[in-house]
Design goal:
The chain is an alpha/beta fold and 378 residues long. The chain has helices spanning 23-33, 56-63, 94-97, 108-112, 120-123, 147-157, 165-170, 172-184, 189-208, 212-235, 241-268, 275-303, 312-320, 324-336, 340-366, and strands at 7-11, 17-18, 21-22, 38-40, 46-49, 52-54, 68-73, 80-86, 103-104, 116-118, 127-128, 133-134, 139-141. Belongs to the CDP-alcohol phosphatidyltransferase class-I family.
Length: 378
């Protein structure tokens, strides 16, 4: 838990910008988001160089640990540089401010002052619960690492570790460049989310009239922007409770409308599966969608973490489970071979199989003698 009312003091100056922001402003947002009461260049008990970009887990630990002295290997290999220092209340700040950013040949000098020197691994847990992944903590100096490489690390850090195959494998490279562009244009994440909502409506209309290829293009555009808005929010520290509700609300609500629209378009088209089979497929998809979400919600509420991170098999299943992106991939492939109706039936079958799989996993978790834990934490 973060120690309350910790003020962060940024030392040094630089003209470097990150994600379209002056570095001092980026640092202010970054430290404020992880719990700092105030960030400035004058007073503060947590001292850090303006040049240092730290992983959020590392920032939180430093805020919560008076006496912590973060040492990072110097790029030249000559020793360890002091990147950050959380001074206890009884220690005079000006006595140590000059040491931040300097090479510390002997950490014992810090211990003699009642401080606790350590590296990034001493002060941060590699498991990120919010993003469902393990990631090595980092402390990067902008004097030693070019800004574009720091931005790549920050972007990678904003990505969920357990997600679907399209988001995981297709979007990272183009989404990085789109996020950089959006940041430099000073677009807000909610603007990007609103654009994605426009593509939700456009895809619905194309599916409704049976215009499959334009509908698929609009759908993939929406899913791409759905990736960009979250990454933009995390890299520019502009995420908010309302933004989270807006983004995830759209994600939760729109897929059934797309399935309904696809069903309507298929009913107007000649050939393919019978009307009765299409109707049963729609029912299976919609009921399965709701029940899958209920399974996940129950697991989360009962055990305190997502079902997809219980065991490695659950994380692998999340890559292809019957969510929007894998389902759209199935439908796109069916359209490309001229069988959209059978693609819709395939989505229904896959939805039922995934529902059964996650249901079995839920009952297995409930039957465990000990409370299940996240495999990445064990």
């Amino acid at each position: 838990m973060t120690k309350p009312h910790v003020v962060v003091r940024l030392l040094g100056e630089t003209s470097v910008r990150l994600w379209g922001l002056d570095l001092a402003e980026w640092q202010r947002r970054s430290w404020t988001k992880v719990g700092a009461a105030k960030v400035g260049t004058q007073d503060g008990r947590l001292l850090t160089g303006m040049e240092w970009v730290l992983s959020p887990a590392l920032q939180r630990t430093l805020l919560a640990t008076p006496g912590a002295a973060l040492l990072v290997e110097d790029g030249s290999g000559s020793g360890q540089r002091l990147a950050a220092l959380h001074l206890p209340d009884e220690v005079e700040a000006d006595r140590f401010a000059g040491l931040v950013g300097q090479t510390i040949a002997d950490p014992e000098t810090l211990r003699a002052a009642g401080l606790t020197p350590g590296n990034v691994n001493d002060f941060a847990d590699p498991y990120d619960k919010a993003l469902r992944k393990r990631e090595a903590p980092y402390a990067l100096s902008l004097q030693e690492t070019p800004p574009h490489k720091v931005e790549r690390v920050l972007f990678k850090g904003s990505y969920k570790g357990v997600t679907d195959l399209v988001t995981k494998y297709a979007w990272p490279i183009p989404a990085f460049h789109a996020t950089r562009l959006a940041a430099r244009l000073h677009l807000s994440p909610n603007m990007v989310t609103t654009a994605s909502l426009g593509f939700v409506c456009l895809a619905f209309w194309f599916f409704w009239i049976g215009a499959w290829l334009p509908g698929i293009l609009a759908a993939w555009s929406m899913t791409f922007l759905d990736t960009v808005d979250g990454k933009l929010a995390r890299t520019t520290m502009t995420y908010s409770r309302w933004g989270n509700i807006y983004d995830h609300g759209i994600d939760l609500i729109h897929p059934p409308f797309w399935y309904w629209a696809i069903f309507h378009g298929l009913m107007q088209a000649p050939g393919g599966p019978s009307d009765g089979l299409l109707f049963m497929s729609l029912g299976a998809i919609l009921v399965g969608y709701v029940l899958n979400r209920l399974e996940e919600g129950f697991f989360m509420r009962y055990f305190g973490f997502h079902i997809h991170v219980w065991r490695p098999i659950d994380s692998r299943a999340r890559v292809i489970t019957a969510r929007r992106n894998p389902n759209m991939l199935i439908f796109m492939l069916a359209v490309l071979v001229g069988q959209p109706g059978w693609g819709f039936v395939a989505i229904a079958v896959w939805t039922i199989l995934c529902l059964v799989f996650h249901g079995v996993r839920l009952f297995q978790a409930l039957a465990q003698p000990d409370k299940p834990v996240v495999w990445m934490e064990s």
